[in-house]
Amino acid sequence: MDTLRYYLIPVVTACGLIGFYYGGYWVWLGAATFPVLMVLDVILPKDFSARKVSPFFADLTQYLQLPLMIGLYGLLVFGVENGRIELSEPLQVAGCILSLAWLSGVPTLPVSHELMHRRHWLPRKMAQLLAMFYGDPNRDIAHVNTHHLYLDTPLDSDTPYRGQTIYSFVISATVGSVKDAIKIEAETLRRKGQSPWNLSNKTYQYVALLLALPGLVAYLGGPALGLVTIASMIIAKGIVEGFNYFQHYGLVRDLDKPILLHHAWNHMGTIVRPLGCEITNHINHHIDGYTRFYELRPEKEAPQMPSLFVCFLLGLIPPLWFALIAKPKLKDWDQRYATPGERELAMAANKKAGWPLWCESELGRGGLASI
């Protein structure tokens, strides 16, 4: 039964393929899975159960995603060329963009994320190709070498600071990860005695793959379909950065201290756990990034967030996100989980954001004076 849960991944993606095959207003079918899954994730109880799976069949869901995404775009081109999808119809264009964006972000990002942490070259190459669909084909470089080392510190561009909106975070995280990837690639080549301009530099692959998808789609389906692809990649990139935004929002850590159970937010929804390849069962992934997704142990006592779907929707309206979730959750984290040193960092972050200093009594006058 636990193995079957993960087949939600190809089933959701297959909805997009079916929609593009039939064309017309069926192109909305992929995007329509979002509200259905959201309602189920909200109304069903949280799931803290450990998984008992067949490793082969659980892993198979990961390796199916790349051919499914290629098929998704293939059916899109086929539908346009055969007149089943009319790009002169604004509602059909919107349906194509939103279905592509949603399926390129979820479940493609979680699958790509899982595969980039595998040790073999094949799944890691598949992760890079999957990341092309959400416009970030070199995501693995900064993710593995920066985010996993420096999470919850100012050195990690994938950790949003307190008071930051999702809109500014998408930009800062994108710029930060690209800069980190370029720097890391250059340093890697120098250590090998090669020039950073060597053609083996993965930055060239980044640019090539970023252009390849919309370029190929435009060649096969026309310029308008190329623009649809670009729009979907941009929206998908926003969804992708949203995962980091909601899994690390406002958390702080002493750089010289180890990563502990309270250093990530967890979203333990019955739907989002299998759909997200357990990426929302997050903290033990950071403690050991090589643990397979179905082997991650749920930590009921670790910091918890509401449904990730709800967080995404509220995050689009920053005042609601801050008032209803971010501030109450961070206040609880500061008072219940944070170490004394982390409380000082947290109150300094609150002061910078213009938020209340709710740990004032714990720190005392001496601690506050240094903030």
UniProtKB/TrEMBL annotation:
Keyword entries, A-Z: Cell inner membrane, Cell membrane, Iron, Membrane, Metal-binding, Monooxygenase, Oxidoreductase, Transmembrane, Transmembrane helix
Q: Which family does it belong to?
A: Belongs to the fatty acid desaturase type 1 family. AlkB subfamily.
Q: How does it sit in the membrane?
A: Multi-pass membrane protein
Q: Which segments cross the bilayer? A: 56-79, 206-236, 307-326
The protein in question is named Xylene monooxygenase hydroxylase subunit
The protein's matches in InterPro entries, at most eight in alphabetical order, are given as: AlkB/XylM, FA_desaturase_dom
**What are the subcellular locations of this protein?**
Cell inner membrane
**Gene Ontology annotations for the cellular component aspect, listed alphabetically:** plasma membrane
Among Pfam families, the record links this protein to: FA_desaturase (PF00487)
Q: Which GO terms describe its biological process?
A: lipid metabolic process
Q: What is the source species? A: Pseudomonas putida TRO1
What molecular functions are annotated in GO for this chain? metal ion binding; monooxygenase activity
Q: Which residues form the Fatty acid desaturase domain?
A: 91-300
From what superkingdom does this record's organism come?
Bacteria
